[in-house]
Input
Amino acid sequence: MILSRRHLSLAAGMAAAVALTAGALIASTAEAAPSADVGSSAPAFTGTTSNGETVSLADFAGKTVVLEWTNDGCPFVKKHYATPPANMQSLQASAAADDVVWLSVISSRPGSQGHVSPEKANELTTSRGAAPAHVILDESGDIGRLYGAKTTPHMYIVTPEGKLVYDGAIDSIPSAKVEDIAKAENYVTAALADLSAGKPVATASTKPYGCAVKY
Output
């Protein structure tokens, strides 16, 4: 059968579209695929804080570490920082009181929602009454992709021995409504309580909810 030039053009266009779609799917899958597995060693990383310091996960060996992915423009993040009840701030302060290291990580790329300068990051910490040990500016997204962080917020907990024991949502009600905080089960609080009691984390993995991380 002889194909016309029009048919050949259409066939070529369809083939290109299929190739582009397949490529997009592969890229999307690769970007979203988590590299951190609960129960295994937490991926090592080094990052720069909003104060210009270089910190590594290894710096906190011997201490429990909480990783919080955040984006100040995200409604789900605003929910947990809203005052009252200052839910995220309370968690951070409680963690600090228990000698738990809290690291807030911003993986928004330059020009995207949530990307901030070091000065703005510090202003947000002060104005919201937040109390993380450090705010890490991960504008390359390398740390976020290393852990497979999908949303803001997305929470992880690492034991003093460097084992990842929690990966998922901050709590059990996936909404942006402040009034739902009091009704939800807080998975981070529960996991830290289990660790403090010397018990395995009962709920080690949940589905995170919030805005997609702006890689």
Summary: The beta strands are 46-48, 54-56, 65-69, 101-106, 134-137, 151-152, 154-158, 164-168, 211-212. Residues 93 and 141 are 27 Å apart (CA to CA).
